[in-house]
Amino acid sequence: MNHSYSISEVANVFNITTNKIRYYEKKGLLKPLRDSNNEYRKFNDEDIMTLQLILLYRSIGLSISDIKDIIENKTNKNYLNHFNDQWEIVNDEIQRLTIVRDSLENILDKLYMKDECGLDSDILDVIKRANKISDVKNNWKDKWNFNDWAKNYDKAIVEDRGEVKIYKNYNLILDKVYNLASKNNKKGLKFLEIGVGTGNLSSKFLKNNCDIVGIDQSREMLRIAKKKYPKLKVRLGEFLKIPYSDKSFDIIVSTYAFHHLNENEKVIAIEEMIRVLKNDGKIIIGDLMFKDVDDKRFIFKSLTKGQIEEVEDEYYSNIDFLKMEFRRFDKNLSYERIDMFNYIIKII
Ligand SMILES: C[S@@+](CC[C@H](N)C(=O)[O-])C[C@H]1O[C@@H](n2cnc3c(N)ncnc32)[C@H](O)[C@@H]1O
């Protein structure tokens, strides 16, 4: 039997004000019937369920317009869109607050250590550095449009139409990264793949029952990965803003993704990877690189103009530079060269 409740009864049940309920009604989220005699609102069981949903969605920060859209369009695709949006908003906020907290920590250290002279400029320096990091984190853009690429990505690997044939050893590289990452491992380790794309590398871990999550900044790539490997856990996430807490993973892997970050961005991405990596964890990356500046100069001499343009459209790493950056965290980098541009680096 369908019950009918007055607005004060409903407000009492949920411990909220009647004004709040009227507000949700005004925004079109609730549509209670009216009593034909006195025009009072009559809430039925369905309205109660809807209000419960509204309050739950509000508690995780969804906006009124998002909630309205979710209530009106209950498809999985629409849910995913909204909850992914919210996942991004929450993770961005965590990143922002973490930077602010780190700055305050730093400033307070300085204040407790020193007397008054020179403090203003020290404090300003800390804040300026924090703002710079935020800018780098927030200004990365997908200028290659991976969402458009996602559907045909696997075909593009096979066709390898580019001028520099970066995919000619694709399968070999993925196998090697998998083998290096899973060598001598204990049971129950946690793996993270960054730039999971259509899931080709992660699927090898999945097949061998490893606990892996793949993150990518492209929703379409994630959609295809999930279609190919329904059991694969995927999440939206970027190198520069990894959506996980400190020391969450034993092993981080990545292939063909790191070269979408310029050098400033790589510095922050390395900090992020180290942040989410456990102390004795390892990182294995297969990607496009040069050994050092001289190696790049030498190789460029043998390339055509078109090939150089293609290489320079992305940011192939310089291994010497990466070595130096990882050393700041007491990590050692070793590498294997696979072909002219493809290397596998191991960081332990
Ligand atoms: C060339 S595809 C490689 C995909 C897959 N790793 C593979 O080996 O086939 C590059 C992938 O990295 C992702 N990617 C690029 N820059 C990224 C970033 N800053 N954070 C997260 N993912 C990124 C892209 O969206 C894309 O899915």
From TrEMBL:
Domain of life: Bacteria
Pfam families named in the record: MerR_1 (PF13411), Methyltransf_11 (PF08241)
Domain HTH merR-type, residue spans: 4-73
Keywords, comma-separated and alphabetical: DNA-binding, Methyltransferase, Transferase
InterPro entries reported for this sequence: DNA-bd_dom_put_sf (IPR009061), MerR-type_HTH_dom (IPR000551), MerR_fam (IPR047057), Methyltransf_11 (IPR013216), SAM-dependent_MTases_sf (IPR029063)
PROSITE patterns xrefs: HTH_MERR_2
Entry's Gene Ontology BP terms: methylation
SUPFAM superfamilies: Putative DNA-binding domain, S-adenosyl-L-methionine-dependent methyltransferases
Gene Ontology MF terms in the entry: DNA binding; DNA-binding transcription factor activity; S-adenosylmethionine-dependent methyltransferase activity
PANTHER family: CHROMOSOME-ANCHORING PROTEIN RACA, REDOX-CYCLING DRUG-SENSING TRANSCRIPTIONAL ACTIVATOR SOXR
Identification of the protein by name: Methyltransferase domain-containing protein
Species, as recorded: Clostridium senegalense
